[in-house]
Amino acid sequence: MPVDVLVGLQWGDEGKGKIVDVLAPTYDAVARFQGGPNAGHTLTFDGVKHVLHQVPSGIFHPHILNIVGNGVVLDPVVFRGELQKLTARGVDWSHNLYISKKAQLILPSHRALDRISEEARGNTKIGSTLKGIGPTYSDKIGRVGLRVGHILLPDFEARYKEAVAHHASIAAPYKKGLEIEEFEADFFSAVEFLRTLQLADTEYLLNDLLTQGKRVLAEGAQGSLLDIDFGTYPYVTSSSTIAAGACTGLGIAPRHIDKVFGITKAYCTRVGSGPFPTELLDEVGEQIRQAGREFGSTTGRPRRCGWIDLPALRYAIMLNGVTELHLMKADVLDGFAEIRACTHYRTATGESTPRLPDPGELDAVTPEYLTLPGWHSDLTQLTDTTQLPSNLLSYLTFLEHELQVPIRIVSVSPDRVSTLYR
Ligand code: IMP
């Protein structure tokens, strides 16, 4: 079966972009199926770091089609900026980039609503990236959204005005104006640019590829614990971030899905609000943040850091049907005398459970840890798994035993070349 799906198993920022870039040469197409400019996929090669937000991470491989699927919410201004940056770096995306006409458009007023609703939440803020994600998906589900295909219609401007009027009516009870006038000219010029791109019924494009026996890699954004249904609701994003989302977000039938790659860090991070039982609020957390350069690639916010959380990973593996794990940023733990892994939670009633309790109960759980010895080597110089230090090998064996899924890739630096296959 020719579709493999790659998903984050934590709260995003696991390193999905790097792995998509590394695996892309073995596929004919890479397709994004959800999320939007809230994502920040970082790829590093030839000494240069690239951050992609909406463009699929296969874009640096000219023979691979890159598809922005119908499940994505697209900000034309951000998208144009990304493509201009790629052009400046000599990447020609003109022939291999397709955008679904059914993807939803993020308008300046969606961003305004994101800001207004976050301000109104006071100390229950989601910690949104303020890119307009929630309001755009709300309009989609409410059946009032504007799609990319609408920009080709003669009445697009009238539809836009109707949408903005609707958004102004949502903002009115907050006693806030949308204040979008200064962004509108830029939005329309970005829409003009979007009209020049390859807008397509990408579900047909993808299914035609599958009929020809071509291979597709579906690229997830954010992480399973931010999933709208199964994440730490309400502190989640507004899309289906799990593997099943690839079917509805691309128009691919479930029978086409083969492997599911689950991406996890060797530890855990989270940006924004919400429960994070293994969070380290001490100097160890700070050490991880500095060593892992854990600052948001989209917002620059410091990421919350903590130990790996196995109840949460088991849950994500179950939801996604993960067939192989890719362990990222193992090198960040270089030099730690001890490494801890949360194997169970102790609940408020005193029960020890290997499962993830309901999000509402997560603030009250206490993680139960197993401590393992660290390794004292510089992993970033390794080129082969035979060189892995024995304490890291023990950590990998321990994780595989706990999670019952093989770890096929160990990543030991941001660079493409630092990808060790087991
Ligand atoms: P939104 O998707 O911008 O509405 O943000 C909702 C929550 O998801 C916030 O906690 C964000 O920090 C988090 N989030 C959204 N996108 C990402 C991502 O790509 N990486 C990590 N966290 C994200």
From TrEMBL:
Free-text remark on how the cofactor is bound: Binds 1 Mg(2+) ion per subunit.
Top-tier EC class: ligase
Biological function: Plays an important role in the de novo pathway of purine nucleotide biosynthesis. Catalyzes the first committed step in the biosynthesis of AMP from IMP.
Subunit structure: Homodimer.
Name this polypeptide is given: Adenylosuccinate synthetase
Active site location: D13 (proton acceptor), H41 (proton donor), K140
Reaction it catalyzes: IMP + L-aspartate + GTP = N(6)-(1,2-dicarboxyethyl)-AMP + GDP + phosphate + 2 H(+)
Protein residues bound to Mg(2+): D13, G40
Pfam families: Adenylsucc_synt (PF00709)
Swiss-Prot/TrEMBL cofactor(s): Mg(2+)
Residues engaged in binding IMP: D13, E14, G15, K16, N38, A39, G40, H41, T129, R143, Q222, T237, R301
Entry keyword ATP-binding: no
EC number: 6.3.4.4
Residue positions binding GTP: 12-18, 40-42, 303, 329-331, 411-413
Protein keywords: Cytoplasm, GTP-binding, Ligase, Magnesium, Metal-binding, Nucleotide-binding, Purine biosynthesis
Pathway: Purine metabolism; AMP biosynthesis via de novo pathway; AMP from IMP: step 1/2
Family membership: Belongs to the adenylosuccinate synthetase family.
SUPFAM superfamilies on file: P-loop containing nucleoside triphosphate hydrolases
PROSITE patterns assigned: ADENYLOSUCCIN_SYN_1, ADENYLOSUCCIN_SYN_2
Entry's Gene Ontology molecular function annotations: adenylosuccinate synthase activity
InterPro entries: Adenylosuccin_syn_GTP-bd, Adenylosuccin_syn_Lys_AS, Adenylosuccinate_synth_dom1, Adenylosuccinate_synth_dom2, Adenylosuccinate_synth_dom3, Adenylosuccinate_synthetase, P-loop_NTPase
UniProt main location, coarse: cytoplasm
Residues that hold substrate according to the record: S297, T298, T299, G300, R301, P302, R303
Compartments (UniProt record): Cytoplasm
